[in-house]
Amino acid sequence: MGDEQPVLEVIQERKPLEILFQSTDLVAINKPHGLLVHRSMIASDASEFAVQLLRDQLGQRVYPVHRLDRKTGGVLLFALTEAMNSIMQQRFAEGDIRKTYLAIVRGYTADELEIDYPLRRDDGIVQEAFTKVKTLRRTEVPVPFGKHATSRYSLVELTPTTGRFHQLRKHMAHIFHPIIGDRPHGCNKQNRLFLEQYAMNTMLLHAHQIQFQHPVSGEEIVITAPVQSEFERMLAVLFGEKPAFTQIL
């Protein structure tokens, strides 16, 4: 057979998770799009999870006090003790944590609106769900879509006061302004357009900020996550005002 050169396997080491905030009992990261918070039976293809990655990075046990969708990037908060985990989970459940998201959606949204639309769980239970929407930017790009010669999009700030499963995704689809890159609640034709036109298949939903009063110190904590690379790229492509966005985001 002759001499054969051994195949060397190249292992790419994942970059450390971006730490946004850390104290003796809490830590927050900027979760990448596509990273699961923890193991899930419905995502058997995943081999990395935020809980394990952060545990290994810090060298201690961590407790996720809330959840983000796999496709959503941004602020993800963990407790570092069981006691703080219990307190913060209760704070989230009671709506004491203010959460703000950014999303790029199809069409021109109203300057401000409120979505009061109950959502049905998989088990059939209907829950109240409320989201505030504020439009930050609108754009029209010379890309044909359907019968239209151009395509219109909005950058919106979303503030949910309830925390239902896929609430923001379902609410924006309900008002016919689906989030770009969302599956299954979004627009498949728009998602295909972004894949073909911009080589982009990330869901453009970003957990921008959380704000709360620290349970022990009473200090007002504000944690903000900068948008990640694909979201930033699409802001520049669609809105063309990258320097201006640094003042908002």
Automatic annotation (TrEMBL):
<dbReference type="InterPro" id="IPR006145">
    <property type="entry name" value="PsdUridine_synth_RsuA/RluA"/>
</dbReference>
<keyword id="KW-0413">Isomerase</keyword>
<dbReference type="GO" id="GO:0140098">
    <property type="term" value="F:catalytic activity, acting on RNA"/>
</dbReference>
<dbReference type="InterPro" id="IPR050188">
    <property type="entry name" value="RluA_PseudoU_synthase"/>
</dbReference>
<protein>
    <submittedName>
        <fullName>Pseudouridylate synthase</fullName>
    </submittedName>
</protein>
<dbReference type="GO" id="GO:0000455">
    <property type="term" value="P:enzyme-directed rRNA pseudouridine synthesis"/>
</dbReference>
<dbReference type="InterPro" id="IPR020103">
    <property type="entry name" value="PsdUridine_synth_cat_dom_sf"/>
</dbReference>
<dbReference type="Pfam" id="PF00849">
    <property type="entry name" value="PseudoU_synth_2"/>
</dbReference>
<dbReference type="GO" id="GO:0003723">
    <property type="term" value="F:RNA binding"/>
</dbReference>
<feature type="domain" description="Pseudouridine synthase RsuA/RluA-like">
    <location>
        <begin position="25"/>
        <end position="174"/>
    </location>
</feature>
<dbReference type="GO" id="GO:0009982">
    <property type="term" value="F:pseudouridine synthase activity"/>
</dbReference>
